[in-house]
Amino acid sequence: MPELPEVQTILDALFPQIIDQPIIDVSVLWEGVIDRPETTLFIAWMKNRRVVSTDRRGKYMLFELDDGRWLVMHLRMTGEMRVIPNSDPYHKHDRLVFHLANGRDWRFKDMRKFGRAYLVEDVQEVIFKLGPEPLSADFSVAHLQKSLAARTAPIKSLLLDQRLVAGIGNIYADEALFRARLHPLRQGGSLSAAEVGRLVEAIQAVIQQALSEMGTTLRDYRRPDGSTGEFQNSLLVFRRTGEPCPSCGTPISRIVVSGRSTHFCSKEQH
DNA sequence: AAGAGACCCTGGATGC
DNA sequence: TGCATCCAGGGTCTCT
What are phi and psi of A160, to 5 degrees? Predict the structure, then answer.
């Protein structure tokens, strides 16, 4: 499941392979991958363009084209990006291919078909709801405290809401809550200023570390060169149900919050 | 308005 | 062994 660190890692590896390379043709292998505009227009607008810069907001990848439009892509659950020779046979799950002028293909593969591509004049059309980047100055204790005020939903659910803070998914929400020693079912508005401070620090620390370890590979996530991330070796609670808490030895608990599996230490997190 | 739940998808794991 | 069912979860939509 690509979250902020995985998306950034993929984008960084992709950048030197696609930058300034003319896209001479586009193959849409599954039409549902195109969100907007309609497929024929999408292909026409992408053809003969090149990516002049890349950026990331939350879990969205942003590719600026030489005509000023933006290609926005979201990998959702199982999306993968590779740049490989165009002679390689397509994989069963390849959904979208940009054929580059240098004889290589920039391919988007996505087993579960949740990933989407958007081609827009202004990225705000797609990402206007996103909250601040967790590593930016905008994501302050004051900001989070204000966002959580009077909220009754579990803090775990609120961390997954991209309008509060962008880029956190199920893995890093659980890991951050453990590091902050906060129970996932705590109502958002019940957190004290000190607790919000711990949470901001924990989120930033876990995202920083996951970035430096190139993300977390549990099953599907791969870097564009096919290699895995490393942060799965640093997980303290996620998918460690029944294993001893690294801090106190209590078996890690698993509950379901907002339909998402949630892992925590019932003794350490309050 | 906020919160809960359905839905979209596939394939690996599990159960009988 | 083979088939059916469950589960994974990001984002959007609907309903209350």
Answer: -85, -10
> Would you say the C-beta of A239 is within 7 Å of strand B?
no
Q: How far is the CA of A153 from the C1' of B5 (A)?
A: 14
pTM (2 decimals)? 0.96
- CATH architecture of the domain A141-264 equals Orthogonal Bundle (1.10)
Would you say the C-beta of A115 is within 7 Å of strand B? Answer: no
Helix orientation angle between A170-179 and A193-212, rounded to the nearest 10 degrees: 130
Taking only the tens place, the pLDDT of each residue in A152-172 is: 999 999 999 999 999 999 999
- Residues 6 or more apart in contact with residue A90 via CB below 8 angstroms: A29, A97, A107
A4-127 CATH: 3.20.190.10
Q: What separation in angstroms does the CA of A219 have from each of A207, A215, A222?
A: 19, 12, 9
Mean pLDDT value of segment A168-185: 96
Measured CA to CA, the distance from residue A23 to residue A37 in angstroms comes to: 18
Residue labelled with tokens 């600026």:
A64
